[in-house]
Amino acid sequence: MKITLRSIFPSCYKGEYVSPSPKPTKVVATKGGSSSNRVSITDLSYPSSTFSEDLSVSLAGSNLHVFTLAELKIITQSFSSSNFLGEGGFGPVHKGFIDDKVRPGLEAQPVAVKLLDLDGSQGHKEWLTEVVFLGQLRHPHLVKLIGYCCEEEHRLLVYEYLPRGSLENQLFRRYSASLPWSTRMKIAVGAAKGLAFLHEAKKPVIYRDFKASNILLDSDYNAKLSDFGLAKDGPEGDDTHVSTRVMGTQGYAAPEYIMTGHLTAMSDVYSFGVVLLELLTGRRSVDKGRPPREHNLVEWARPVLNDPRKLGRIMDPRLEGQYSEMGARKAAALAYQCLSHRPRSRPSMTTVVKILEPLKDFDDIPIGPFVYTVPTDNGVKESETPKERKRENGHHHRSHHHTNAHKHHDNSEMHKDANESEAPRERKRENGQHHRNHHRHNGHRPHPLKAPKPQNDEHQNGRRSGSNSPDSIAS
Question: Three-state DSSP class for 86?
Fold first, then answer.
């Protein structure tokens, strides 16, 4: 049986005759998306009579559910503000919950429902692109598309819910604990694997909009690529690139793509290098709130990425030195290669994965913040550790206590008559008071000098709140 676009998206093409169907059509996709017969986006971009062309294979793997708008209102409590998760270029996103009461046989689970903003920067074409790509592509590091809704002018997408949100929010939000080094490397590896899967498919895909806000995180910080609205089929045959309108986000797009419109897999590699640099420095790709020479992260940081002596100057101060120095050097050198102005000098994403994978397990991370102590004249040695000083002070305290006890013993005969009348509890209280007085005068001295803790490099939140968010680019 042949499947046509009209049968897959019946309500989207009301201008053409569609034979009635008693049940919503479900799309089925090729497992792993590796088949060279995968549906081409170029065939699906613009609704017209050419879209009646039969698809050579079904779209699926696991079923994509076709939801009605009424069902999605139930799922999200009529898109309640209490379920609002955020908003991007596509439109607002709401949390919902689906179970077999909404759709028999559907696994009960939380979901994220993305509603196309009719006045937004994206439209039907981007919506259809996302349905087609994620309807066919399945990978642990790509977000799972559960279903969609195409009803009159309404366009919605239903995804698995990822509780930790985007990397952008986790990395840049204020008043939160900094992401540890190993977690940052885990996220980088997962995102790299997602891109490598797209690039290495028999029919390659160029993601085109790789950035921190499009990397979503599950509860274990596993990275998943989302938002495929700008994705493109890669060049085929003898073609070296795909010529497109320049679209993406300022600060992430490769320079050669901005200048020529020539899109290749190496354009994604450059964008990955920018995100890797964000993970190392804790800075946004573009931040107009910084001094002028530091507005563009790549221009500011790239010159020192290959210099281990200067690398510490650009590392995220919120890490407080708690990172692998060897791992940081290797990651910085990799970012330097990815950000090369010559696309052919950039590594493939498969190579990137091989380099990054070991970095999350490096064990040369310092145990605690470094505290420097200078030598002084009071007997504290520069090489002493706090534990050694504590031990020495404790020995001094015991010696002093022993000496005082000996003096009390020598004078005991002189004061014997007076002491005999003292109650043991009163003597104990007096000795305790003497001990506290002595400890107050001769106790531990503070460290002569402690290095001040670095100040947190705080930034505004992502696109959803922000004046500092990168601008989208389109020409």
Answer: strand
Lookup result for tokens 């992401």: 179
pLDDT tens for each residue of 357-403? 998 877 667 655 555 555 555 544 444 445 455 455 555 555 555 55
Q: Is 183 within 8 Å of 221 (Cβ atoms)?
A: yes
What's the token pair of residue 78?
């009529």
Q: Do 214 and 159 form a contact (C-beta atoms < 8 A)?
A: no
Contact 66, 147 (CB under 8 A): yes
The one-letter amino acid code at 91 reads G
pLDDT tens-place string over residues 73-119: 999 999 999 999 988 778 899 999 998 888 888 889 999 999 988 77
Report the DSSP beta bridge partners of residue 171.
none
The residue written with tokens 């700008």 in the block is 230
Spatial CA neighbour of 148 closest among 163, 166, 176, 129: 129
Q: What is the DSSP string of 267-306?
A: HHHHHHHHHHHHHHH---SB-TTS-GGGSBHHHHHGGGTT
Question: Token pair of 181, please?
Answer: 């080094």
- CA–CA distance, 126 with 330 (Å, rounded to integer): 37
User: What is the number of alpha carbons within 13 Å of residue 225 lying toward its C-beta?
Assistant: 33
Span 265-310, pLDDT tens digits:
999 999 999 999 999 999 999 999 999 999 999 999 999 999 989 9
Which parts of 32-104 are beta strand (E)?
65-66, 84-87, 92-98
Beta carbons of 53 and 129 less than 8 angstroms apart: no
C-alpha to C-alpha distance for 146 and 159, rounded to whole angstroms:
5
CA distance 278 to 215: 13
For the chain, how many residues are written? 475
Query: What are the residue numbers of the active site?
Result: 209
Residue 222: helix, strand or coil by DSSP? coil
* Distance of alpha carbon 295 from alpha carbon 291, whole angstroms: 7
Q: How far are the Cα atoms of 102, 404, 413, 416 from residue 420, in angstroms, in the given order?
A: 89, 20, 11, 6
Note whether 390 and 444 are within 8 A (CB).
Answer: yes
Two structure tokens written together for 471: 């601008």
Between CA 184 and CA 328 the distance in angstroms is 11
Question: What DSSP string runs through 148-212?
Answer: EEEETTEEEEEEE--TT-BHHHHHH-SSSPPPPHHHHHHHHHHHHHHHHHHHHSSS-EE-----G
- Give Cα 19 distance to the centre of its chain: 46
